[in-house]
Amino acid sequence: MNWRLWIPLFAFAAFLGLAAYQLTQPKDEFVESRMVGESLPYFELPPAMAGVNGIGSTDFADGEPRLLNIWASWCLPCIAEAPHLENLKRQGADIVGVAIRDRPEDVARFLAQHGNPYSRIGRDDLSEVQLAIGSSGVPETFVIDGQGVIRYQHIGDVRASDVPVLLAELEKAR
Amino acid sequence: MIAELGLAALWLAAALAALQMAAGFLALRDAADGALAGLIRPAAIVQGVLVTLSFAMLVWLFAVTDLSVKLVASNSHSMKPLVFKLSGTWGNHEGSMLLWVMVMGLAGALIALVERRLPERTMNATLAAQGVVSLGFYAFLLLSSNPFERLPVPATEGMGLNPLLQDIGLAFHPPTLYLGYVGLSVAFSFAVGALLTRQVTPDFARAMRPWVLGAWVLLTIGITAGSYWAYYELGWGGWWFWDPVENASLMPWLAATALLHSASVLASRDALRTWTIMLGVVAFSMSMVGTFLVRSGILTSVHAFAVDPERGTFILALLGIFIGGALLLFALRANTISEGERFALASREGALVFNNVMLSAILAIVLLGTLYPLLTEAFDVRVSVGPPYFNPVGAIFTIPMLVVMAVGPLLRWRQDRIDRIGKEIALFAALVLAALILTSLLADIALLPLLGLALGVGLAVASLMPLRRRKLARTPLATWGMVTAHFGIAVALIGMASESAFTSERLAAVEEGGSTSVGPWTVVLQGVEPVAGPNWTAIQGRVSASYDGGEPVVLTPQSRNFWAPPQQTTESALVTRWNGQLYAVVGDRSPDGRWQLRLWWKPFVTLIWYGGLLIALGGVLALVGRVLSDLRHRRLAARIADRRADREALS
């Protein structure tokens, strides 16, 4: 029996084991922000349309926890999450919006059609704030505590099942 | 009705594959049983006909856009041009798997029809092994990816085909690679058949060689075409990204290249028996591993295929049965295969063995780099392995391989002296050194491209040296094939080195009427206008470019918007000159009204693909040469047999 002849089989078995293990693992394609636990970086954004307030990082340091929602009028999942944001607002959450690469007239049309859950909406033309807080896509929702520290990141659209999770995170951040 | 006919043909073909397998193994166990053995060849032939019929039915369904079939509804669209409707047949998981088994069935039928060199027992074992492999794929198709599934309610309109794939390149790139993979599966069946009957002979190598050559030619063309498609369609200006899917096609190619050379040694010198068998198994394993990595989605890749864990599990199970079984058989049997002829280190075989080892090392490096993220992810570490690993580590083995490749074909079989070809080695060394010194004096470029250029120049000349002192008209076609393929490697190498050393890039915001420059080109953006195609609209830049102040050429790069499904693609525009390509992409409009223009000047980049085509042409020449000489031998053998029969009849 020549043991060297068995090497290919064992190498293959190792590959098979690894591949089988990886197949059973759920695939996580999300890029999580490294900013969770850090303070918001300094920023100031102009209003996204006439009649709303813009936002700055200093607005978050008033002791109240808030939701920061990254969205855009051109984003389809944002339409899907609109009713759930509305629901969050009804249950007492203060939601601040950041409109990514958007135009004031489109923002106005979107809010007229799908409702406006936001207390303020900033306009982020260059994805500057989005990148600074470690968001890699639209929509994403962050929980910011009363000291302006990022506490939690939700990637993708907010669904019905996410509403209680976000409310609990807001409570924790108090 | 058409769909049901296709499905029925597919089931029947699967049943025949089972018959082919069972009869083959039973005949192998009981050599006296001629009745069973007589079934094997007809089973293979009828199976080939049935599976072809099944595939034809699917093509028909796509041609008429039958939206009651799920596969058509989810991958086609009534508004697509006909050629893309047809290519849509294999532009999806189920259809491409059906294409795979069809080619496999045709290959089996062809072997059953024409292959008469091998002993009947080895032939039966080979066809039995082929039956096992086919049956696995039939099971995969019929049980988990039925292409003929009907929708309960016919769709009113199809979902369309990914716009990136609506390109003539796609119509040919995947099937070419598939044909190559299947060719390797035939080599695999031959290897398993030879292991089962312990008859690893030069005849076995000769029977296997055309299949390996054919597979290798198709893989070469497939990889070359895929690289060019990525280059002009993705709009990134690169031609190779070390993406897992690219690696998945490169690994079988590397293994097939090694197999090709070791089969040559076995065919002409009866040496390297176990090594050839091993490579036969490895080459097909790499095709399967590649298919698994691509289809299971366990690696993140720019190629987003229809990813499905269930299919991944199925392919993994097939992989385990085929490759695990073959390797187990190898471990048990390889001992009993005698070693074959010996040879000296300084000989043609010695050089071929050295290059085989280098090719295997490169294969191992690519495999390791591709699987490494999989390994680290098991420990929750995310890494991405790219050019900084593949390029230098691969070069460590590629450079010695290129050197030996330059001089190896000049050595004689069995035993030779290095000093006999001293002059040729000196010429090669002098060329490489001269190119090295000259380029490093004239231009400031990185080490790897510099070495690549120098070795490419040396190899281009050295690869033609086997033709010296030969009567060209009487040189066998196979030798011409070798020379052409080696020369092609040199050409491609020069192209790659030149592209990475001398490319200049310019990203500019240009207003209409404004100009910019890249390398020796002056580029003017004359205007931007909307245009419409059959299923897309686009903005199209009209760019005039003049080389070194010469006559301007107009290019029209586009940014296309498809509406079924909605997606944006960039269509690059190219100007090809003998000494390189200008590559232009038009991007978004900035708020101040200027347009983003991205330009590259890539000197001699086209040599990469010309080299690839030359390599493939070399393979074709060798293949034709081998098949012709095989036919000649057969005719001679038949004439000798006739004459002997006459003589016996006379006496």
Write a concise synopsis of the structure shown.
The complex is a heterodimer of chains A (174) and B (651). Chain A has 174 residues and is α/β, with parallel strands linked by helices. Chain A is built from five helices and seven strands; from the N terminus they run αβββαβαβαββα.
Features:
heterodimer, A: 174 residues, alpha/beta, Glutaredoxin, 5-stranded mixed sheet, two-stranded antiparallel sheet, 5 helices, B: 651 residues, alpha+beta, Four Helix Bundle (Hemerythrin (Met), subunit A), 6-stranded antiparallel sheet, 4-stranded antiparallel sheet, 17 helices, 10 strands, 63% helix
Structural features, described:
- Chain A has 174 residues and is α/β, with parallel strands linked by helices.
- In chain A, 34% of the residues lie in helices and 20% in strands.
- Chain A contains five helices and seven strands.
- In chain A, strands 5-4-3-6-7 form a five-stranded mixed beta sheet. Chain A has a two-stranded antiparallel sheet with strand order 1-2.
- The longest helix of chain A is centred in the N-terminal third of the chain and has 18 residues.
- Chain A is elongated, with a radius of gyration of 21 Å.
- The mean pLDDT of chain A is 87.
- Chain B is an alpha+beta fold and 651 residues long.
- Among the domains of chain B are: 160 residues; 181 residues, Four Helix Bundle (Hemerythrin (Met), subunit A); 100 residues.
- In chain B, strands 2, 3, 4, 5, 6 and 7 form a six-stranded antiparallel beta sheet that branches. In chain B, strands 1-10-9-8 form a four-stranded antiparallel beta sheet, covered by helices on one side.
- In chain B, a hairpin with a 3-residue loop joins strand 3 and strand 4.
- In chain B, helix 5 packs antiparallel against helix 6 and helix 5 packs across helix 7.
- The radius of gyration of chain B is 27 Å and the shape is globular.
- Chains A and B meet through helix 1 of A and helix 10, helix 11 and helix 12 of B.
